[in-house]
């Protein structure tokens, strides 16, 4: 495959297709109607440049040098001229530069899995391709998988494209066709929109080499956001595969950029030669400058500087004075913790579908997608006002449709995935009917037709598990349900009614807003109910547009954290606490359900809580310990995925205790071997989990204890943020004494605003980083952190029975909401699952409940114990 250079130096002039922006890029193959490389053995390089990089560089050099002492910079792009790129390639072979080997290890290990997630017919665009050694691993895997894809190496350096493509012959590939794109990232973005054929294909953007680390963190987020907005289309097969270096070993990182063979030094120093070329004369004498690399522990980044060996005057049109020892920064390489990368994706509106990494995740590739519906995870995004705005409705409807229309096979609407509940079709009618009841009642409107839908769709069933003949009042169950299309038409009319209310600004009264809010949160709750019902259905279709997770790779990534043994018992002191909130709806406050009011003062005695919920792995050991095969309903012994005929199994190389044999955890993507789901919270009924807790020498927490645990985890989160902020402020204040190393002051006001945000409105929690609101479509590992609300993707059972309390007042618009369940059979549940919308997941006063022996809801349990039992206090 890799050949000695065989491309004549001038050949690109003949082979390339130079295009005017927006013009025809490819020669069309009229027979097949597909993009073609016209049977050439050499690779075409397409000129997509729209700007002159050199001119921009010239300006940036002058601007950067005119900055005050300590803030001078030269543009990083200076490093990537022909000579620099050759040096960079040499760096990638240096052992000290661990990044390339790490990426090769990940790509080689998972090439097949990555290739399987590239859609047939996709355009693969690699940003800043440089040397093609690494991507070649993936191209080979795509070829082996017989994927018809077109690979485009995008780089601003044409000589680099020519040089590296000289080592690749198109004739080696039958399915993969290779092209070069000569231009900048921005040119690439514009080119993707430039012609219909390009637009019509799924896109798979590769951004390897941890190049994202060369951007400032905020710039990187903006960059990803722009690509999400213009390139990665929502709810489609478009993807971005991005590499992140998470190494936090300062010495190792420093050595990577200050290698013992001095290759990096040559690479960086060449930037000054390039600056001379760009400026058209020798402005920098290399002997006046030295390369200095520094690792900045506060910001987790390496910085490359030119340090002047003596006082200098740089002879620009307006000469620039340089002090002896002054530093001019040319490159930054940021490192990202997993949490930082997740926060960046969140800010950019992208979600992780799956990840591949080295054991421990020091270097990882994340597969990102643009979710069809976006529900924010920060209070300022998901709880902007008491009443959801129309955009929030539209996003919720997208999710509802994705689930109800995309995940249910046409022939399955009349089936009952859970025999105690109504058939799936009922829920498609129930949601708009309930909304219409609230809207027509509060806005004084007649029912949307057909009005008789109210007789069958207004209220669902949730019978007594022990005696299904016992059930609260509910709508009549008809002999024949209406036709799906009629129900969908009705739903469309109700949605239009809601749209009209917003459009005509008829939603100004608190009463109408309350009706809308009620309909919104009701739909949110049913979305989750429907999801846990569909999980029990063998014929559920995986969600469209969401990448299929690589559960095995994620398990291997999580194993290091799980084996580190960081989880622990946390001592929680006795304390007073407040449950619930006061009713302030009339004063413009947030709406709440009847069971969130009034304010209740309570207290807990000191106790110890485990830092995470009980896992599937632990539950399997418990069942083995008590010699039981009474598996929870979230598990199955059948590894078949009826949607794909795939039989899931455990790779022979992976450690798998006997207790896990033959067991699988149900997911919407099919059954996952329990081995790979062993770090996830176990989902089971209260009765099952309290048995396990007792066996393990503990118990499940009371509602108050669980609330205190969540308060505690929030304090930890805020403390961490405050510590980070303090370190940054120290760094900024102390920069003059820091050996002349200037640290750009961060935007402290923005950071302070962020830290404040969860506290600003005490009602809502910052859920960034939690597994809630459809960020993932399955539970996730609970190791590696003290778990709070929504971490791991399951609600948590409390031992507190749902009972009427002093001051409880049923709601006027929906009096049965809680009151129908004061039968002492239901327990309070707190937190959130992965399918809980942020408005509910993040609202700290929200209370959920289920029957103690109900096996389907997505609730887990965590161990607590009394302090007296441990002999400590
Ligand atoms: C650090 S190298 C990484 C190369 C390769 N992706 C890897 O992982 O080894 C960065 C590459 O991106 C290219 N590059 C840098 N900025 C660019 C831009 N704005 N547009 C296009 N290419 C760029 C450079 O020419 C260089 O080949």
TrEMBL record:
Residues 568-707 form the Sulfatase-modifying factor enzyme-like domain. Residues 403-529 form the DinB-like domain. SUPFAM superfamilies: C-type lectin-like. Transmembrane segments: none annotated. The keyword NAD does not apply. Residues 58-369 form the Histidine-specific methyltransferase SAM-dependent domain. The keyword Methyltransferase applies. InterPro entries: CTDL_fold, DinB-like, EgtD_Methyltrsf_superfamily, MeTrfase_dom, SAM-dependent_MTases_sf, SAM_MeTrfase_EasF-type_put, SUMF_dom, SUMF_sf. Keywords: Iron, Methyltransferase, Oxidoreductase, Transferase. It comes from the Eukaryota. GO terms for molecular function: methyltransferase activity. Pathway: Amino-acid biosynthesis; ergothioneine biosynthesis. GO terms for biological process: methylation. This is Uncharacterized protein. It comes from Orbilia javanica. The lineage of its organism: Eukaryota, Fungi, Dikarya, Ascomycota, Pezizomycotina.
